[in-house]
Design a protein that fits this description.
The complex is a heterodimer of chains A (801) and B (113). By secondary structure, chain A is mainly alpha-helical. Chain A has helices spanning 3-24, 30-46, 49-53, 78-101, 109-128, 132-150, 157-188, 193-198, 200-203, 209-223, 232-235, 241-250, 255-267, 271-292, 298-320, 335-366, 382-396, 402-416, 425-428, 431-455, 473-491, 494-508, 529-546, 548-551, 564-586, 591-612, 628-646, 650-670, 674-695, 699-703, 713-735, 743-754, 759-767, 769-791, and strands at residues 58-60, 63-65, 70-71, 74-76. Chain A has a two-stranded antiparallel sheet. A two-stranded antiparallel sheet of chain A has the order 2-3. In chain B, helix 1 (2-20) runs antiparallel to helix 2 and helix 2 runs antiparallel to helix 3. The chains are: A mainly alpha (801), B mainly alpha (113).
């Protein structure tokens, strides 16, 4: 356990203490205690920048399950560090923001911060683990905490729906990712990402390579809300806004991107990877930006915009994979795509985080997020407006904000696709820049909607729940910090380039981004195609925004009925229905039905196995001789048990059962088992006494008319079936001796090891002493149950007995 | 001998099954009692019968019967006693509370309520 381990574990530890702090200090907002941790962690992780800058990697190991090759190995490289800084940095701002967003009087703050801390720790675990199984465990933990946070206001139906949806979709992806991880470990014989990367060459030709790739991508796509799995993200907006800003925009949804980036060195050589990642990314980019325009909820727009931006980053990572097919660095323009992906990842976290916080402020101050009701807030909330302008313009890709730079790099990468001459790109490549450009126009439009609809136009006070005014200072700090970062990164992008971006790119493409690889981001590099594209985007964007009411109906062309959401709803409903149908068929409440299915299964499975394996064998060679005495006893048992079937009164059947039991103890005597005989005698006596006690002395029962069992053919057939099968098994078990008995060990060692001559007793109390102890435990549980049933009555505490 | 035992076991299981499929709770309990008798004999038969003398170590005996099935059965007898007595008391109390010993009348599914 190193300091790094403690750093990852610290949110979990704090989560344990938070409920206590909440109870002890009700006057202080719990968020203040929580805030300390992400700030500490952020400073802790920023120390690593100087290390990763030089290409160093910090690795700390701790053993967990060494026999399975699962160790908690954390390592910090450029990529992991970038994410760790995002998680802790945005985490600090979000916690600070939440202190003012969530009222300490009304909200269950203890739960909120516990869930948030769980998420923070899990997310750090995801991005810092080297072992894929550990990564997977943390991965599912993020899904779980996301579920809890979306359902935070669990009295709302929409919250529960959104929480369930996100859980079902992301866990589906998580499980398939686990499958992919297992396939990877079969191929590479290790769970370690580093070792897998080292072996990537030989993995390519393995027959499991493609299934592993598909399964891992499914996990990444569901988590990062890629089309067609994006449908959970808009519903996740039911979460409190700090959560949306943190999980569903800046960090958790980027876990899928992290996974794609992290495993790029393993998979990216393959053409399938290139196609899947870039195409899924592009479709998502377009889909998200197009449907964002349709939304009327401010957070809904931001949700679709997040989907679209995630698609953008994903497609860049896909394109970056093309770089692996070009040897020299000088002409390798595709590596620039990866640089753009990393840069945009950072930028997206800053501008989208600030926009979410703005949406939260508007919601908080006006009581609604519906853009049809909002308008004219500019005068009332000037600071919020400024932040919104910065965030939205950056999102739209306007200078001088950071979004402009990464958007230009994105467009440049898409244009460069035209020069690609692998994977049949000559024919289809032209679609890439076209889709990118169209999606960017829509991005421009929804960015304008986000900032212009609520803040300009007519103020309709009568539609708002309360009279809006500027948000409290504390609530503004975080968005202002993020907005200033938007400007700082926009004007001085090279602050990041060698310290953060270059090490991160080196983590994604270690074979290419060597020591002489440099990242330089420039504002102006001549009249390249991307500049014209940006100008076109702005021109068309303004035009379309002005004419928005005329064509907005186009976005409604897919009826709700056949949408992906409807598909999801139908699948879930169908599952629920079929589950309750199966439940109704199987769980009838009739013990007879249960026993019937058990017996039928018994007959058919065992009978079939006997037949199929040809297991029945009758070996009369070592049969023991039959004595007359045994014949008599066997006769008594047979007659007795059959007689029970025909017995009229309960008393008779109980007595016959006793008789059968005593006969069996006599059998034990003959079969050289004195201990069994004694035990059986004692037990049988007690049993009969108990039977009589219960059923003979129950007056009502005795007076009730007793009748013989009516004959039922079905039951008889099944009974005969069971009897025959058991007979066959008894004979086969005796005749098939597949291996030597282990009994000789006990016979030899009973005296030597345990000093007892009665071997049966020695086995029970010495060799298998623990078994006997548990046997006693079972008896005690039965005794306690009996005692409870007799002594306790369900009469509200009154003791009738 | 083994053949005879196998048939006896089969008959015990058959009667036990038939009883357990009936409606009366008492018969079901008697059925489980018979079933455990059958199971005990089954374990004993599987190990082979009369293959030697009683498993009490002494100088006279050359071979012993298998002690392991006996140890298993000893445990099983005690456990089945525990289960039977629990079931009995359960049936007794059920009868006191519900006034019936018919399993079909005791069906408590959500749909019936």
């Amino acid at each position: 356990m190193s300091l790094l381990h403690w750093a990852v574990l610290s949110p979990f530890l704090l989560a344990l203490i938070v409920p206590i702090l909440y109870k002890l200090f009700r006057q202080i907002h719990t968020g203040w205690f929580v805030l300390i941790l992400p700030i500490l962690l952020f400073t802790y992780f920023s120390r690593f920048i100087s290390l990763t800058k030089q290409g160093d990697i910090v690795m700390e190991s701790a053993t967990w399950i060494p026999s399975l090759g699962i160790d908690v190995d954390f390592y910090v490289d450029g990529l992991g560090l970038l994410f760790a800084l995002l998680i802790t940095g945005i985490g600090s701002l979000v916690v600070l923001y939440s202190i003012f967003y969530l009222s300490k009087e009304k909200e269950k703050l203890n739960q909120f911060y516990v869930f948030l801390l769980l998420f923070m720790g899990a997310m750090l675990g995801v991005v810092l683990s080297d072992n894929l199984i550990v990564l997977y465990s943390f991965w599912e933990f993020t899904s779980l905490s996301s579920f809890l946070l979306i359902g935070y206001w669990n009295e709302r139906e929409r919250s529960r729906y959104g929480a369930q949806k996100s859980l079902l979709i992301t866990v589906l992806g998580g499980l398939s990712m686990l499958g992919g991880i297992i396939l990877l470990s079969i191929m590479g014989n290790t769970f370690s990402i580093r070792e897998l990367i080292a072996k990537s060459g030989e993995l390519m030709d393995h027959s499991l390579f493609v299934p592993a790739l598909l399964l891992v991508l499914l996990g990444a796509f569901t988590k990062s809300a890629q089309f067609p799995f994006h449908i959970w993200l808009p519903d996740a907006m039911e979460a409190p806004t700090p959560v949306s800003a943190y999980l569903h925009s800046a960090t958790m949804v980027k876990a899928g991107i992290y996974l794609v980036a992290r495993l790029s060195p393993v998979f990216a050589e393959s053409g399938l990877w290139f196609w899947l990642v870039s195409i899924a990314g592009l479709i998502t980019l377009f889909w998200g930006s197009f449907f964002a325009i349709k939304q009327t909820d401010l957070k809904g727009i931001l949700a679709f915009s997040t989907i679209s931006q995630l698609g953008l980053i994903m497609s860049l990572l896909g394109l970056g994979a093309a770089a692996l097919h070009y040897e020299t660095l000088g002409e390798n323009i595709y590596l620039a795509a990866t640089v753009a992906a990393v840069f945009h990842l950072i930028n997206h976290a800053t501008f989208k985080g600030s926009l979410f916080m703005v949406a939260g402020i508007i919601d908080h101050e006006t009581g609604t997020r519906d853009i049809r009701k909002l308008g004219g807030l500019m005068q009332l909330m000037p600071i919020t407006f400024t932040v919104a302008v910065i965030g939205a313009f950056s999102m739209a890709g306007l200078p001088p904000f950071n979004g402009f730079l990464s958007k230009e790099m994105f467009l440049a990468s898409m244009v460069n696709v035209l020069q690609l001459n692998i994977f049949n790109m000559e024919t289809w490549g032209v679609l890439f820049p076209v889709v990118a450009w169209v999606a960017s126009v829509f991005t421009f439009i929804y960015s304008m909607i986000v900032v212009l609809k609520p803040f300009t136009g007519k103020l309709q006070l009568q539609l708002l729940e309360r009279k809006p005014h500027e948000a409290p200072v504390g609530m503004l700090i975080s968005p202002i910090i993020l907005a200033s970062l938007v400007i700082i990164f926009g004007i001085f992008p090279n602050l990041l380039s060698s310290s953060i971006i270059k090490p991160a790119v080196a983590g994604i493409q270690p074979s290419l981004a060597g020591p002489d690889f440099q990242v330089h981001i420039a504002f102006w590099h001549g009249f390249e195609p991307e500049v014209w594209m940006t100008i076109g985007i702005i021109a068309f964007g303004i035009l379309l925004y002005k004419t928005l009411p005329k064509w907005q109906k186009v976005t409604q062309w897919i009826p709700e009925r056949i949408s992906l959401n409807a598909l999801y709803d139908n699948v879930v409903r169908g599952l629920e229905r079929s589950a309750s149908f199966v439940m109704k068929v199987l769980m009838t409440g009739s013990i007879r039905t249960y026993l019937l299915s058990i017996f039928l299964f018994f007959i058919f499975s065992l009978g079939f196995t006997l037949y199929w394996k040809d297991a029945f064998k009758l070996d009369a060679g070592n049969f023991a001789p039959i004595g007359i005495y045994e014949l008599v006893l066997a006769g008594i048992i047979v007659i007795g048990s059959v007689a029970i079937l025909f017995a009229r009164s309960r008393l008779t059947s109980i007595i016959i059962l006793g008789a059968v039991g005593y006969t069996i103890s006599l059998f034990f005597v003959l079969l050289r088992a004195p201990d069994l005989a004694l035990t059986q005698l004692v037990i049988e006596t007690i049993s009969v006494a108990l039977f009589l006690l219960c059923f003979f002395h129950l007056p009502l029962m005795a007076s009730r008319k007793e009748e013989r069992m009516t004959f039922k053919l079905n039951n008889a057939m099944i009974s005969i079936g069971v009897g025959v099968i058991v007979t066959l098994i008894a004979l086969s078990a005796h005749s098939n001796k597949l291996f030597d008995s282990i009994s000789s060990y006990y016979l030899e060692n009973a005296y030597k090891e345990a000093g007892g001559k009665n071997v049966v007793n020695v086995i029970l109390v010495d060799f298998r002493g623990l078994d006997t102890m548990f046997e006693i435990t079972v008896l005690s549980i039965a005794a306690l149950g009996i005692f409870a049933m007799i002594k306790l009555r369900l009469t509200g505490g009154k003791d009738k007995s | 001998m083994e053949l005879l035992m196998a048939i006896v076991i089969g008959i015990l299981f058959m009667c036990a099954t038939y009883l357990m499929l009936s409606k009366s709770i008492l018969r079901i309990i008697i059925g489980t009692g018979l079933l455990s008798h059958g199971a005990h004999l089954l374990i004993l038969t599987m190990g082979g019968l009369k293959g030697g003398s009683v498993p009490l170590l002494s100088d006279e005996a050359a071979t012993y019967v298998d002690p392991l099935p006996q140890a298993l059965i000893l445990t099983a007898i005690v456990i089945s006693f525990g289960v039977t007595s629990f079931l009995l008391v359960l049936a007794y109390r059920t009868y006191q509370e519900l006034g019936t010993d018919d399993m079909e009348e005791m069906r408590g599914t959500e749909t019936n309520e």
